From TrEMBL:
<feature type="transmembrane region" description="Helical">
    <location>
        <begin position="20"/>
        <end position="39"/>
    </location>
</feature>
<dbReference type="GO" id="GO:0009088">
    <property type="term" value="P:threonine biosynthetic process"/>
</dbReference>
<dbReference type="InterPro" id="IPR011147">
    <property type="entry name" value="Bifunc_Aspkin/hSer_DH"/>
</dbReference>
<dbReference type="GO" id="GO:0009090">
    <property type="term" value="P:homoserine biosynthetic process"/>
</dbReference>
<feature type="binding site">
    <location>
        <position position="128"/>
    </location>
    <ligand>
        <name>NADPH</name>
    </ligand>
</feature>
<dbReference type="InterPro" id="IPR001342">
    <property type="entry name" value="HDH_cat"/>
</dbReference>
<protein>
    <recommendedName>
        <fullName>Homoserine dehydrogenase</fullName>
        <ecNumber>1.1.1.3</ecNumber>
    </recommendedName>
</protein>
<feature type="binding site">
    <location>
        <position position="215"/>
    </location>
    <ligand>
        <name>L-homoserine</name>
    </ligand>
</feature>
<dbReference type="InterPro" id="IPR022697">
    <property type="entry name" value="HDH_short"/>
</dbReference>
<comment type="similarity">
    <text>Belongs to the homoserine dehydrogenase family.</text>
</comment>
<dbReference type="InterPro" id="IPR036291">
    <property type="entry name" value="NAD(P)-bd_dom_sf"/>
</dbReference>
<dbReference type="GO" id="GO:0009086">
    <property type="term" value="P:methionine biosynthetic process"/>
</dbReference>
<dbReference type="Pfam" id="PF00742">
    <property type="entry name" value="Homoserine_dh"/>
</dbReference>
<comment type="pathway">
    <text>Amino-acid biosynthesis; L-methionine biosynthesis via de novo pathway; L-homoserine from L-aspartate: step 3/3.</text>
</comment>
<feature type="binding site">
    <location>
        <position position="104"/>
    </location>
    <ligand>
        <name>NADPH</name>
    </ligand>
</feature>
<feature type="domain" description="Homoserine dehydrogenase catalytic">
    <location>
        <begin position="162"/>
        <end position="358"/>
    </location>
</feature>
<keyword id="KW-0486">Methionine biosynthesis</keyword>
Amino acid sequence: MSAVLTTEAAVASNPLASPAIAAVLLGTGVVGGAFLKLLNTPAAASIRLVGAANSRRQQTQAEHLADRALREKLKSHGDVRNDAALLAALDAHDAAVKVVIDATACGTLASRHSEWLARGYHVVTANKSLAGGDLPGWRTLQAALASGGRYGDSATVGAGLPVISTLRRLRHCGDALLTLEGVFSGSLSYLFNQYDGSQPFSALLRRARELGYTEPDPRCDLSGEDVARKLLILARCAGFALRPDEVEVESLVPESLRGVDVETFLARLEELDEPLAARFAEAKARGGSLRFLARLNQRGRARVGLVEVPANHPATRLYGTDNQFALSTTRYNTQPLVIQGPGAGPEVTAQALLGDVLALA
Ligand SMILES: NC(=O)C1=CN([C@@H]2O[C@H](COP(=O)(O)OP(=O)(O)OC[C@H]3O[C@@H](n4cnc5c(N)ncnc54)[C@H](O)[C@@H]3O)[C@@H](O)[C@H]2O)C=CC1
Ligand SMILES: N[C@@H](CC=O)C(=O)O
């Protein structure tokens, strides 16, 4: 038996021992809520939560943060939102590693990631808005990373499937990405894997939302925006500094539903049904299936959209929220390297965040 206790074991055996990692959690929704549950497991013993926030309230007091009903209580109790107070809570802690965990979809918060990194905090994120956003923001992030902070981004693509890490490793070894293709959305995978015309598309979408697969505004999924962001993240990891306007994006959101607020959109989901039923019937008549694919070809042309694929296409062999990433590289050039598995859902995404946080210590 080893005479040296791991940090996890040391903290577990002595709850007063200083944990290695102090963390602030931004966002206590579907993913943030699942992350809070993981914090109560032995695997997270080395992490001390020193602050948590939703969009309107936050908490920095230890007794409230330790409350298992924290997520519910934050809906009606807590201090007014203020990033500075959360960062001060991190500063006040003597942990060696200080991390801000972003489990929101908020673009404004994502735009602060670079500043937090430059100030010496690490950032772990499920929020894709910065790494998958405009090119100047991404470049600022790369510059901030040069100052030593680490950016845990596993949750941003494939909900933690080892895609980003694989691309980085291949690149590190001198391999070069040639093409990238697949299904990058868990919710759209769930929808098109099941949609057979026997029930309305809108009913499946409601279910996908209840299960926590969609973005807070499901139009981000249906518009192709979320898939485009993931394609940008992967392309940039592979060395292609693409701009968002270089990705051709097909939206499944009818014009009439684009400008309305989320509640109105959710109340009018049935307007999606007829156009998708027609597309499905056309594809079926030709023996094809519909899948929402992302593609980056060898000339750097990028497209995301609904594609009619033949019955033997690899994307027809997906189940549930499966994502599929087929990577052709200079060394994987006869058959692509394929990474496949569940690509959305609170538990797997929260686990990706936890893995990135633990990797900081
Ligand atoms: N649901 C999934 O399967 C996956 C989600 N993600 C990403 O995780 C993120 C969160 O998604 P969900 O949990 O489903 O969303 P959600 O809508 O359930 O939760 C979002 C949370 O962020 C909070 N929030 C918004 N603005 C904030 C601010 N300025 N400060 C503090 N908190 C703020 C909201 O109050 C809410 O608690 C999104 O960026 C999404 O793309 C990533 C991979 C998979
Ligand atoms: N809404 C996203 C969740 C993960 O990023 C998806 O459907 O893939």
